[in-house]
Amino acid sequence: MPENHTTYLILLAQGLIEIKGPDSAKFLQGQVSCDVRELAEQTTRLGAQCNIKGRMLLCFRAIQPENERIILRVHAGLVANGLASLGKYIVFSKAKLADVSQDYRCLGIAGIKAAELISKVFAVEITQNDGWQAAGEHLIIRIAEDRYECWLACNQHDKQNANQADAIWDQLSAQTTPANQNLWNLLNIQAGIGDVAPETYEAFTPQAINFQLVNGINFRKGCYTGQEIVARLHYRGALKRHMYRFEFLLTDQALPAPGTELKNAEGKTVGEVILSASKNDVCGELLASVADNERVDICLINNPQKLSLLALPYAIPTPNDDK
């Protein structure tokens, strides 16, 4: 957190896909890497939808606010892709897909007083990471002890609903410091939470962004599209790359976009950027999927300065320890 005694309010650029109907959980269980049944336990889960080759089409956080309704929070640029890729399989299910991005205003609250502010404004207390509670029609998710996502219901066709969302925004704004998406990205980097962007569509397996280490893959849940490839990497010890966190020096160029290549001293491509953010005026941080034996002495393709390897909040397994 940039300022230890500051609490930040961030308007998040997110997309939301709704699966609604009697078969919503059953349908999604056969399509994604996480165990959808766990959503009924008042928890959220990270997860991925893959193609038949085990490459990620979507990376999401899922929540089940009602028995027959699940919402996936995805990259804003991949909502249409998600509707299309999930739509190919839902036609024989008693469930429907919808883009509900405009029905919620997604906010991030981060900082030392985040939990206190959540309790004060929404009258909820969430004790476990990845847990959630409803505050009326609003959905409050605890990412960490000092970090929350708030999905404010703001249906533009319901004036009272929209006005209430505006009032909550004003209340939160008065007690926080405004920040932008860059800070939220930085916090995700420091937490070791990767994402799929339009630039990295179908580029990575879930393990390449460490989803097996953040409850994003359940290897015992049963079949889903791409599951055979994902399971083979796990059980046969064939995984030779992970997602690592690095620090880099800023240049006059834009932040490295997802998919930007990382090179070793010989000029060989050894990894790709997943997410990047500036930390201050001098340096930034990024997550990159990198070959395990090439995680040192590497640089960005457009920046000759060597990357500095940083710690993640979880351990990267050594070879054959992924099982």
Please supply descriptive tags for the structure shown above.
323 residues, six-stranded mixed sheet, 18 strands, single chain
Describe this structure in words.
- By secondary structure, the protein is of the alpha+beta class.
- The chain has 6 helices and 18 strands.
- It has helices at about 25-30, 80-90, 115-120, 160-175, 180-190, 225-235, and strands at about 5-10, 15-20, 45-50, 55-65, 70-75, 95-100, 105-110, 130-135, 140-145, 145-155, 175-180, 240-250, 260-265, 270-280, 285-290, 300, 305, 310.
- The strands form 3 sheets. The protein has a 7-stranded antiparallel β-sheet with strand order 17-16-13-14-15-12-18.
- A hairpin with a 2-residue loop joins strand 8 and strand 9 (about 140-145).
- The longest helix is centred in the middle third of the chain and has 15 residues, at about 160-175.
- Quick check: average pLDDT? 93
Count of separate DSSP helical elements: 6
Q: What strand line-up does the widest sheet have?
A: 17-16-13-14-15-12-18
- Structural class, from secondary structure content? alpha+beta
Rg estimate, integer Å: 20 Å
DSSP strand content: 25-35%
Query: How many angstroms separate the termini?
Result: 33 Å
Spans of at least 5 consecutive residues whose pLDDT stays below 50 are none
Helical content band? 10-25%
Order of helices and strands: EEHEEEHEEHEEEHEHHEEEEEEE
Q: Biggest β-sheet, characterized? A: 7 strands, antiparallel
Topology, number of strands: 18
Shape: globular
